[in-house]
Write a structure and sequence with these properties.
Blueprint (H helix, E strand, L loop, with lengths): L1 E5 L14 H8 L1 E6 L2 E11 L4 E6 L1 H4 L22 E3 L5 E3 L1 E5 L12 E5 L17 E6 L7 E12 L4 E5 L11 E4 L5 E11 L10 E5 H15 L6
Antiparallel strand pairs: 1-13, 2-3, 2-5, 3-4, 4-8, 5-6, 7-8, 9-10, 9-12, 10-11, 11-14, 12-13, 13-14
């Protein structure tokens, strides 16, 4: 039997570097997102100089860790914007941040599993790309199971729409702690998705390919626009 698992928690450890320049830039813009209750991954996508804030995208379920949330219970009722995660880069440098806006997808599964975090530090960012076609090559950057940066290369399978959520599927490896990892266009290094889940199999004898689910670019753009509209921001992304 297969299971779809949210990629929750990771420990922090820096791994080897990667030679390709685009991948290096993506690593520079990627971060471990650390809460007292656990860690996820994220990618910085915009710097607003007028506000003095750099914005980082991750998963809603990563940010919910701040409230002691599991799939079954919620320890704290405090609003998410009262919590201050730490961003950790590839060199182990830590940046104080704040949860700014979340989809609260746990309460409404039709919402994309996304959350925006902000930091006043000027840190490297990357940009959004364009929708991929089936078979396009991609790579992901994140911090699963204590390894950061963890980079994997794969291919875009297809876009899926069901009654609950829009999803893109990739042949990328994802583990616990991969949640919030950016998926990048192999040719441009731009963001095309945010990983939120993976498929696992109860039967270890099943030799199936890795399949990872990511929030599609269209949903990411819509979520950013929603955030901008609510905060009267005029971004060109």
């Amino acid at each position: 039997m297969k299971r779809v698992i949210l990629c929750f928690i990771s420990l922090f450890l820096v791994s080897a570097s990667y030679p390709r320049e685009l991948i290096k830039s993506s690593i520079d813009a990627s971060y471990v997102i650390s809460f007292a209750e656990g860690n996820g991954s994220g990618v910085a996508f915009y710097r607003d100089e007028s506000k003095g804030i750099t914005f980082v995208m991750t998963n809603d379920h990563v940010c919910q860790l701040s409230r002691g949330l599991t799939l079954y219970k919620e320890i704290s009722k405090k609003p998410l914007n009262t919590f201050t995660p730490t961003l950790v880069n590839k060199d182990g440098v830590r940046f104080q941040a704040k949860v700014l806006y979340t989809s609260d997808s746990r309460k409404d599964v039709s919402r994309p599993d996304l959350c925006i975090i902000g930091t006043k530090n000027t840190i490297p960012t990357t940009t959004l790309g364009v929708q991929m076609s089936s078979g396009s090559k991609v790579y992901s950057v994140g911090g699963p199971q204590g390894f950061f940066p963890f980079v994997d290369e794969g291919y875009f399978i297809d876009h899926y729409k069901n009654t609950e959520v829009n999803t893109d599927a990739y042949t990328l490896k994802a583990y616990f702690g991969s949640s919030g990892s950016g998926v990048f266009d192999y040719d441009t290094g731009k963001i095309v998705g945010i990983i939120f889940a993976m498929i696992t199999y109860d039967d270890e004898s099943i030799k199936a390919p890795f399949i990872t689910y990511a929030v599609p670019l269209t949903e990411i753009r819509s979520f950013i626009k929603e955030f901008c509209d609510k905060n009267k921001l005029k971004w060109t992304i």
